[in-house]
Amino acid sequence: MMRRVLVITYYWPPSGGSGVQRWLKMSKYLPENGWQPVIYTADEAEYPVEDASLEKDIAPETEVIRRPIVEPYTFYKKFLGIKKGEKVKAGFINEGARKTGWKENLSVWLRGNLFIPDARCWWIRPSVKYLAEYLKEHPVDAMISTGPPHSMHLIAKALHKKFNIPWVADFRDPWTDIDFYKDLKLTRWADKKHHRLEHQVLTEATKVVTVGWDCARGLENHGAKDVAVITNGYDDSEIIDVEVGENPSFTMSHIGIIGENRNPEMFWQAISELLNNDNVHENTVETRQIASQLRIRLIGQIDNSVLDSIKRNNIEKYVEIFPYIPHNQVIEEQQKSNVLLLFVNNTPNAKGILTGKLFEYMASGRPILSIGPEDGDSSRILNETQTGITVDFHDKEKMKEIILDFYKKHQENQSITGHNELVKKYSRRNLTKEFVKILNGII
Known about the structure:
The protein is of the alpha/beta class.
């Protein structure tokens, strides 16, 4: 008989994007490790993107409980004049007016100071009430909360106090160390409340888990003990073999959100200089040819600052921009590319940023060019698995050198690296086994 684990998560299909992937995939492989997932999630939530194709990954053994959620986005949209049916953009993406007005500033202030820890805080009390009754009739052996949104941790905290259920608090991103925390225009009172709630979660949870080593150190600095690191990963079942063929194009692709802090200004300059042969010593056969073959594909939500950088560097004709596409198509696009681009947020916590797409990039067998800290967590994994190269945010000359090297290998049909044996430890199946060890250890 399988043990039962309650997973409290805001993101669940039909939600698309990165937030849903970790626990959709973990729950997929929990049953083969002796655990039945009971998913508690929101009904009719305001997801930034939706992706019906992800429904296929829900394990048949999964019990899904959906409960109504009240979110403040109806008021938010009316206040900002966002049309009915439009989605609220994720990650402080600016796709509208380039100047931030008083309405936007006030909305951020309200979000940071009234909706603590986040805009789903109104769901905490009704969720605790509902689940308290549910658990009396349908007990579970363990409980997992995953955030952000960190309101999920507060639901679990209340249930843990009431029933003493072993509880894992899983942090996909930091709380007060998140890169946009400083932009929330917090009062001293609100800042203290955020830190107080964070400390309570970190000290009261039976176990704290996060996705990277730098984030683990940050959580320990805020009160957690012996934080376990279980990274994100890739799903074996999604690895497909796409024939790239003899296409002469040299395609570099970035898949996912590019917000203002993730905009790689120096990379666009490097591309511009390569295409225009600005330096005489770079006027080689490769630099003359690359201008006729280069395609840069940006797939996902793009901030206006990115578009401005591309225009400023006069490289618009080389860049193709696509909206969000279903996850199954994302996998195909990765493998049709010659080089995959990973842009790390240029923020104080850059070393700890470890995006979920990194692992799918690695599984695709295509080389990765990462723009970010050379001593960060992403660079650590790329070096360990020998799947890519990290170049510092400001090292324009090295960027040009690496791009030309990738292009030369493309010309010689050497750029497809194949699925690397070193990558296998990051499969979702293997990572789920590691998480199950934690569950088995706390009950």
